[in-house]
């Protein structure tokens, strides 16, 4: 992962959206969502000036149907601006498409996401091959605005659209032997140029995992959209994990396999560099990466003269919600 050393500076006043203004916009969008979705246009792009630059998308029918019933603003962040769509979609990590931040946007249009089949296996009562629409069919689509903190010390605020991972898991009925959930990304080199380079040290497919109680936490999300539209390919279409209190590398993209397992799974970054990237990967300003501090982060967008650096919060600001998951654990050892 690339590294940049952040510098201290204050958050710009212009980047803060007062909550009342935000909520008013939400109410407006709730009304606007139906008509815009019916017109096949991204609702939020039409209704909210902060979503300027959102590219229209041809969403699958199941997505448009769910969008009409979406629960907007189910989770929000206070007084922090949403990252502009062009930044969230052109500054990405998705190594299957290449190592540079611009590679995913450049190459991910090659990815074919329909049909999309997810294999469910392991310690589970309902194993099988599920289409994405079957997997999310019973769950309500929620907009959740989360901070995203990359282990490389940059961060964004993203309005995801997704379904609760806990709901999805419950419907699959894992057995009591399931202690962890293992996720796997699609590995299709003919559509993923980053897999063909030979320079990559990654042992494909990209794998991530969560302890079962982490996966069942109400904040854990399976995202199928963002900014009021279907997920762009470079952000992990058609479905990805979002775990907002952990470093971004836990939020695995383009998932094709969900396995319920007894043992802690070997995950991609931990397997490659265990002294640098742990299984837990909880955002923690007090535990430095061996090569850089995690005390601060660069909130995107920034510029050379205004790098927009801020203090990193414990558990990325979700301490109240998730700290109990790690009671009694030494977070310096379990980084
Ligand atoms: N998932 C896969 N399959 N491949 C990847 O390279 N990168 C991770 C994560 N999920 C990655 C992945 C990292 S390091 C980060 S920070 C986030 O995706 C970035 O998500 P974004 O590009 O949507 O901001």
Automatic annotation (TrEMBL):
One Pfam family of this chain: Oxidored_molyb
GO biological process, one term: protein repair
Binding site for Mo-molybdopterin: 92, 95-96, 150, 185, 235, 240, 251-253
Record GO terms (molecular function): metal ion binding; molybdopterin cofactor binding; oxidoreductase activity, acting on a sulfur group of donors, quinone or similar compound as acceptor
Leading EC class: oxidoreductase
SUPFAM superfamilies documented for this protein: Oxidoreductase molybdopterin-binding domain
All copies of domain Oxidoreductase molybdopterin-binding, residue ranges: 113-269
Modification after translation, per record: Predicted to be exported by the Tat system. The position of the signal peptide cleavage has not been experimentally proven.
InterPro entries per the UniProt record, alphabetical: MsrP (IPR022867), OxRdtase_Mopterin-bd_dom (IPR000572), OxRdtase_Mopterin-bd_sf (IPR036374), TAT_signal (IPR006311)
Cofactor note: Binds 1 Mo-molybdopterin (Mo-MPT) cofactor per subunit.
Keyword line: Metal-binding, Molybdenum, Oxidoreductase, Signal
The protein's assembly and partners: Heterodimer of a catalytic subunit (MsrP) and a heme-binding subunit (MsrQ).
Entry similarity comment: Belongs to the MsrP family.
Function: Part of the MsrPQ system that repairs oxidized periplasmic proteins containing methionine sulfoxide residues (Met-O), using respiratory chain electrons. Thus protects these proteins from oxidative-stress damage caused by reactive species of oxygen and chlorine generated by the host defense mechanisms. MsrPQ is essential for the maintenance of envelope integrity under bleach stress, rescuing a wide series of structurally unrelated periplasmic proteins from methionine oxidation.
HAMAP family: MsrP (MF_01206)
The protein, known as: Protein-methionine-sulfoxide reductase catalytic subunit MsrP
Organism: Stutzerimonas zhaodongensis
Origin organism lineage: Bacteria, Pseudomonadati, Pseudomonadota, Gammaproteobacteria, Pseudomonadales
């Amino acid at each position: 992962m690339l590294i940049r050393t952040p510098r201290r500076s204050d958050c710009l006043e212009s980047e803060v959206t007062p909550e009342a203004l935000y909520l008013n916009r939400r109410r407006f969008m709730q009304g606007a969502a139906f008509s815009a979705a019916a017109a096949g246009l991204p609702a939020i792009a039409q209704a909210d000036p902060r979503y300027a630059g959102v590219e229209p998308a041809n969403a699958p029918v199941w997505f448009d149907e769910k969008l009409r019933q979406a629960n907007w603003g189910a989770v929000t962040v206070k007084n922090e601006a949403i990252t502009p769509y062009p930044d969230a979609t052109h500054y990405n990590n998705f190594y299957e498409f290449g190592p540079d931040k611009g590679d995913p946007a450049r190459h991910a249009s090659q990815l074919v996401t329909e049909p999309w089949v997810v294999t469910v296996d392991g310690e589970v009562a309902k194993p099988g091959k599920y289409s994405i629409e079957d997997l999310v069919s019973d769950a309500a689509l929620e907009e959740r605005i989360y901070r995203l903190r990359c282990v490389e010390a940059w961060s964004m605020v993203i309005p995801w659209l997704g379904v609760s991972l806990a709901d999805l898991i419950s419907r699959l009925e894992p057995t009591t032997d399931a202690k962890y959930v293992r996720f796997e990304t699609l590995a299709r080199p003919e559509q993923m140029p980053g897999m063909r380079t030979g320079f990559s040290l990654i042992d494909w497919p990209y794998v991530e995992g969560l302890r079962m109680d982490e996966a069942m936490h109400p904040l854990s999300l399976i995202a199928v959209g963002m900014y009021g539209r279907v997920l762009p390919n470079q952000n992990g279409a058609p479905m990805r994990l979002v775990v907002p209190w952990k470093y971004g590398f836990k939020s695995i993209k383009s998932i094709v396999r969900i396995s319920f397992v007894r043992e802690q799974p070997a995950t991609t970054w931990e397997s490659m560099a265990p002294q640098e990237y742990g299984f837990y990967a909880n955002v923690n300003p007090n535990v430095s990466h061996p090569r850089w501090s995690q005390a601060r982060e660069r909130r995107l967008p920034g510029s050379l003269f205004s790098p927009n650096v801020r203090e990193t919060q414990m558990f990325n600001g979700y301490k109240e919600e998730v700290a109990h998951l790690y009671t009694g654990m030494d977070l310096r050892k379990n980084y």
